[in-house]
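Model: Ready when you are.
Researcher: Fold this.
Model:
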Amino acid sequence: MPHKRAVIKRVLERGNQEEIEELIDFYENQTLSKVVQSIKKSYLPPFEENVKPYSFAEYR
């Protein structure tokens, strides 16, 4: 899971809309929710902005 977590965090921090949608297509929603919940702090503001519009944001 460490690699999965790193990939998800990186895409949510630095990815554009297309990359985020690709991430959602690749990982199931439950996996994304668990990983987003496990990320305690991101120092890049786009992470929070990119998490909010999706259903896995409610787990944060």
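Researcher: Now this one.
Model:
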Amino acid sequence: MILDQYGRPLEEAMPAMPAAGQFVIAEPDYDRRARDVSYDLTPADVDRILRIANTGDCREQSELALELGEKNWEILHNLETRRNALLGCGFDIRPGDDSDAAKYAADGFRKALEAVDFYELREHLMKVLLPGFAVAEIIWKPGGRLGGFGLLEQPAFTFRNSLEPLLVTRDNSRGIPLARGKYLTHYYRPNRTDPARGGLIRPLAWMSVMHSLPLKDALSFTERYGMPFVVAKVDGTTGESERRKLIRLIRNFGPNGGGVISRSAELELVSSGDSTGMVYFRLLSYLAAGIAKLLLGQTASSGDSSGLSKGDAQSQVRQDIMQADGRRLDATLNSQLSRLWTTFNRGADVPAPEIHHETESPEDDAADAAVLATLYNAGFEADPEEVSKRFGYTLRRREPSQPAAYPGFAFASAPRAAAAPPPKPKPAAPGAKRWVGPVERLIEQAVDAAEKDDDSFDRLLRRLGDADMLDEFDTEAAGEMVEERMLTGLVDGAIREGRRVAAQREERK
């Protein structure tokens, strides 16, 4: 460590190599002792949990974020849809620039990720949506080689007196800072910059507890009005043993209700004005639609092509939301994993590879292709390497005589078209022949004189440079030729324009 004149540590130009191995080891027996914070959840419980998280101690809030998916199928379904929308997209690893060193680093980084469970890491980091942060340990091998990842759940961290996650251990309940270059930290803060108050857990916690209340009422309503209620009326002379037999008989009906009363007693079931219970189911549908909008950005399902989903299951998540999730995940992986791996394995001066999730829609590709075609027709050509990176195809610039499926480019595997024979020269017009005839004859004489190697060659050259030579040009014949061609073109254009106007008039009739 190097210190400045004030004793403060200077920032290192190259981060130190982190220690090899896995630091955080889970203790299942100890970690599973946490109580179920979502058990019999009430609005008062939600308020208490969120107030504690406002102080930075977000462990109960993180635990609630994990448990909501276990008890609310609407949240779990929409949450998995949003996660899988991004995880189902492909991704590629691009070199940092066009240098050979960057391409070599990208190839090595790709092989390093193929040797570990990179999908599991991406899946774990996408659990950031509810708690607002996700942490994974990078397991380095000796020499800076990548050995895997340790996945850490959010309840193991706190933000008390810190804006960075602190790891809570058995020996330190206030948390310890994470080692530099050893952990990946992925954030999702849609509303507040404070990570302890990030994620979607806060609105979803309220929606979940409100969803459970009408659900319980709907179940009670169904049990009351959807099942038969058996009543056995007896008089005062009926003995106790016979009453017990009647009670056992009623219980044999299973979940159906029942009761034993005397003939002199009277029961009355007071019902609400709505005997169908639709008020409960409408409220449940309203809350379910709200959960879908919060997580997916829309309510249209894969079977309803009238909404933003367009009938495509991949498009259940709004396109801009999926692209934002992809860019956010790319930024975390590139800055906290790709940059470190490149520094340790290829050097700090080598451009780091870039991980890119392919979240672009086919409509965007079609629009870009149309723009390229328009620019090509206007006289512009795009760079083949840039277009290859955008579309994911290997492209090269086509030959002038080679047709291509896309304007200006051809696939590397496209067959080369046969070259067309050069066109035959058109015979010169009589006026042009008379105009350049004298010069042509002098040039032919000069060539013959050069072959004979006599003095006539020098005389011909002087003759060609003489100003009086211009008098021998028949300019009148040349002017007549130009005038004839201009008049012919004007007449031909007038005839075509007249035919076009006549055709339009016929179409209007």
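Researcher: Key takeaway?
Model: The two ends are 91 Å apart (CA to CA).
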